[in-house]
Amino acid sequence: MEVLITNEQNAVNINTDFVKEIAIEIMSFIGLPDNSQLSMVFCDDEAIKELNSQYRNKNEPTDVLSFPIELENFIPEIRMLGDIVISTKTAIKQAKEYNHSTETEIVILLIHGLLHLNGYDHIKEDEREIMQSKEKETFKHICGINKFSNIYNNSTEPLIERASESV
Fold first, then answer.
1. What is the pLDDT of residue 102?
2. What is the set of domains in the chain, with CATH numbers?
């Protein structure tokens, strides 16, 4: 598994090696093949607002966007999942609002984005329930791994439910 990270913001000091480890663990846990490749971009609210406006017709910043790779771009040797774009400014605001660390918020957004790239959605109620359940399960798994245990600092219930409803 490969994770490519681009950092286009300066609000948060991103430990790219740590983020890559977490992303790979999430990818493995949700059953993605070993030849999977993910691209991540950390940006500011202005950049994500532009993307949100262009691709979702919503002229406002958001926390995370997922852009899956279309099947016609599929390379057999590599399963290119797509791109996840996370606004660190929004992550900081949401972390303060929900009284947890920015690191915790970024992990929640990463899980949410990866599930979208793996076909999960939350438009319909039944889809939302399935996605929320998978988010909770994945977050608990990540927090149960010793080297990632410091991410967990609150109950997963409000964190995950809020994350599922935010996009």
1. 86
2. 2-166 (3.40.390.30)
